[in-house]
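Translate structure to sequence.
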């Protein structure tokens, strides 16, 4: 989809002519993701501009901007246009550190009762090569499953927890794999396996390899074959996009409908990002077909 760069609008209340700048939306590769062009995010735009960004975001799952060098205040002001800021943090990998945060497919913090709605990542320093991030779109994934499997998944709920005790420091990014018994005993919120994205009416798969423990009422051992099937299916190349960062790049992903993976292929180099998580709400289950 391509929407015009700008249009002239007449405000009904005072007959003032004003130009509303709208982003040009360019889809990336895979059935997820779009790059938005034509905006300078250091500026404050009228509400219609942010509404167009939100629309592209809900439709494409993850959106990208390039050459946006925002300071801390500008990052916060931009993020606040889309919701309540829940967490602000620096993700810094120093040359001597070998593990990276997020180097496995996951959705951020679905172990919470109300998982973050979205994550915004701002690139400050990027290694000379590598350090890309990948996203998989769970709307296209769900739509590509057979009607039989869709119907089965629509009837299920799953337990989510942080059984590996993943944290934000790099020494917590590679914890040992817990036992099956620990997965079975893990306690956490129940989320629908297929959730609805109210803005688009889309049904999206809502399990992820990091935080989904088991289907509700099933053991971990019983859950694994089906979970493994959708985890493998979900990262087929047609559902995945990959973003090459540069200083000033921004990625905003809808944490309700994507998985992501930080590619850790830049040993010996620094990578510095700023991350903002926006507050979410309890996932709404999609209704049976
Ligand atoms: C994350 O998992 O949120 C980090 C992604 C990245 O650093 O590319």
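Result:
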């Amino acid at each position: 989809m391509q929407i015009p760069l700008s249009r002239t609008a007449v405000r009904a209340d005072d007959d003032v002519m004003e130009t509303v700048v709208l982003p040009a939306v360019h889809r990336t590769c895979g059935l997820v993701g779009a790059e938005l062009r034509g905006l300078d995010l250091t500026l404050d735009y009228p509400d219609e501009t942010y509404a167009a960004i939100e629309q592209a975001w809900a439709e494409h799952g993850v959106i990208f901007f390039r050459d946006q060098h925002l300071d801390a205040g500008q990052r916060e002001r931009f993020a606040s246009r889309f919701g309540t800021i829940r967490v602000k943090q620096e993700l810094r990998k120093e040359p001597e550190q070998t593990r990276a945060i997020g180097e496995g497919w996951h959705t951020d913090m679905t172990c919470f009762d109300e998982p973050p709605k979205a994550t915004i990542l701002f690139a400050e320093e990027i290694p000379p090569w590598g350090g890309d991030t990948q996203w998989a779109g769970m709307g296209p994934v769900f739509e590509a499953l057979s009607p039989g499997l869709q119907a089965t998944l629509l009837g299920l709920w799953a337990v989510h927890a942080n059984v590996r005790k993943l944290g934000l420091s790099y020494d917590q990014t590679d914890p040992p794999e817990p036992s099956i018994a620990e997965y079975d005993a893990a306690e956490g919120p129940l989320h629908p396996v297929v959730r609805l994205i109210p803005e688009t009416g889309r049904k999206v798969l809502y399990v992820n390899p990091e935080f989904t423990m088991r289907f509700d009422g099933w053991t971990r051992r019983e859950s694994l074959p089906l979970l493994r099937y959708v985890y493998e299916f979900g990262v087929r190349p047609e559902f995945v996009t990959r973003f090459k960062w540069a200083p000033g790049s921004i990625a905003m992903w809808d944490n309700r409908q994507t998985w992501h993976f930080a590619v850790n292929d830049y040993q010996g180099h620094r990578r510095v990002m700023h991350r903002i998580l926006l507050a979410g709400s309890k996932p709404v289950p999609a209704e049976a077909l």
